[in-house]
Amino acid sequence: MKLVKETQKIWGVSGDELAVTATCIRVPVMRAHAESINLEFEKELSEEEAVKVLEKAAGVKLINDRSNNRFPTPLDASNNDDVFVGRIR
Question: Is the pTM higher than 0.70?
Fold first, then answer.
């Protein structure tokens, strides 16, 4: 339940505005928190469209390099308030 409330808090929305189904695994990691989020939209959104939106989003850093197996890590997020996003599919 904490994961649901934390997501709503980060996004600044109430439970009525954002329905969340959560799976949570706690792993002790210094420096950062991580979430795996599965989003469903009213209209279909391609991976390419999602990447374009995220690239323009304020406070978001996109690291989604499949060919080099490069995705966000806690070290990337250290001393940084941005939200790091990767593994988009």
Answer: no
